[in-house]
Design a protein that fits this description.
globular, about 35% helix, alpha/beta, 6-stranded parallel beta sheet
Length: about 325
C-alpha cells in the first residue's frame, strides 16, 4: 500500500525530507505547502508533486492524504499538529514540538484521543553515529559519565540553514537545545532530575539570546554540559563528546570517532548501523513504518514531552534571573 504524504514547509528542511523520501519505497508526496506560491511550485515541479498550496488546510482536505510532515516555523508546530490530528492525518512535526509546554501537552493529549501516529523530528535519535553509541549502552558495554555538547552557528541575521531570509526567528533554547536535552535522557536511559541555564545578552533586533549554557543531570548520575551560540564564526554545527567508562567518542552528525589520550582519533565505521547514513531519511522511515505497523514510533510526541518539560523549567529560570 502506498502512503500519500503532504509536506508543509518547502524550505531548507522540507527539501531534506523530500530528498530522503525519494529513497523510501511505497511513499508518495502528493501535496506541498509553502508560504510563497511561485517558490513552492518550483519545488513541486522538481520533485513531481501534483498539488501545491499556500494553506495547510487545503492539503488536509485531500481525502487521499494519509500523513503530513510539518517543516514550518516553530511557532506554528503545535497548532498545525493539532489540525492534522483533527483532520484524521498521521503527523510528523519537525523539532521542536512546541515553544510553549502547554501546547505540547495538548498535542500529546490529542494523539491519545485519536490513536493516530504523532512523532517529532528528534533526528539525533536516528543518526547512525548516535545509534551506534546507543547500542553499546543497551548492551551494557558503555555507560555515559558526561556528555559535552557544542551547538554553534553564525546567524547574526535572521537566516536559515541555506543562508536565506527567514519569516520567523529561530531559538537556541526551544529548538537547538531540544536536540541535546532529549538525546541526553534517551542515551542515558535516565530522566533528567536537575537542569540549569544561563544566557548572554538579548539581541537588540532579533529579541533572543545569542549565547547560552545549559547543565543537566540524569537520575543515574550522568551529567551533560551544553554550549550554544549564534555568534560563533565556525566551525558550524553540533559536536557531541560522549565521555564514558570504557571510552570517549565524538559524534559529528553522521560521523563518529573514538578519541584517545595518546594518538589520533580513530574513525568508527557506522555505515552498517542502519539502511541509510541519512538521519532525516531514517527518521522518515520510522514514521512511515509506525503508520503501517500501527505502533508508537521512536520519538513519539509522548516520548519527547519530558524534553519540553525541562525546556519549560529552564525558560522559567532564565526569566527569573
Amino acid at each position: 500500500m502506498t502512503l500519500n504524504v503532504a509536506l508543509a514547509g518547502a524550505g531548507a528542511f522540507g527539501i531534506k525530507h523530500l530528498d530522503g523520501i525519494k529513497n523510501i519505497p511505497d511513499v508518495k508526496v502528493v501535496s506541498v505547502v509553502g508560504r510563497e506560491l511561485a517558490k513552492t511550485q518550483e519545488v513541486a515541479d522538481k520533485y513531481g508533486i501534483p498539488h501545491v498550496a499556500t494553506d495547510l488546510a487545503e492539503s488536509l482536505k485531500i481525502k487521499e492524504v494519509d500523513a503530513v510532515i510539518l517543516c514550518t516555523p516553530t511557532q506554528l508546530h503545535a497548532a498545525q499538529a493539532l489540525a492534522c490530528l483533527d483532520a484524521g492525518k498521521h503527523v510528523q512535526v519537525e523539532i521542536p514540538l512546541c515553544d510553549r509546554l502547554a501546547d505540547g501537552e495538548q498535542v500529546v493529549q490529542r494523539q491519545k484521543e485519536t490513536g493516530l501516529v504523532a512523532m517529532c523530528g528528534h533526528t539525533r535519535r536516528f543518526n547512525p553515529s548516535h545509534q551506534w553509541v546507543r547500542r553499546k549502552i543497551v548492551a551494557g558495554e558503555f555507560h555515559i559519565q558526561q556528555m559535552d555538547v557544542q551547538t554553534y552557528f553564525f546567524r547574526r541575521t535572521n537566516t536559515n540553514a541555506l543562508g536565506q531570509p527567514r519569516s520567523w526567528t529561530d531559538h537556541l533554547l526551544w529548538h537547538h537545545a531540544a536536540h541535546t536535552v532529549d538525546l541526553f535522557a534517551y542515551q542515558t536511559m535516565s530522566p533528567i532530575v536537575k537542569a540549569n541555564a544561563i544566557q548572554g545578552p538579548i539581541h537588540p533586533t532579533l529579541g533572543i539570546a545569542m549565547d547560552m549554557s545549559i547543565q543537566l543531570k540524569a537520575a543515574n548520575g550522568a551529567i551533560c554540559t551544553l554550549s550554544l551560540s549564534f555568534n560563533n564564526d565556525g566551525p558550524l554545527g553540533t559536536f557531541f563528546r560522549y565521555i564514558g567508562d570504557s571510552g570517549t567518542y565524538i559524534a559529528r552528525y553522521d560521523d563518529l570517532v573514538q578519541s584517545h589520550s595518546k594518538g589520533p582519533e580513530t574513525p568508527v565505521d557506522v555505515s552498517g548501523v542502519d539502511v541509510s547514513m541519512n538521519g532525516i531519511e531514517l527518521q522518515d522511515r520510522e514514521f512511515f513504518a509506525a503508520i503501517r505497523e500501527r505502533r508508537e514510533p521512536n520519538a513519539s510526541v509522548a516520548q519527547v514531552l519530558p524534553c519540553y518539560q525541562v525546556l519549560h523549567q529552564l525558560e522559567q529560570q532564565l526569566a527569573a534571573d
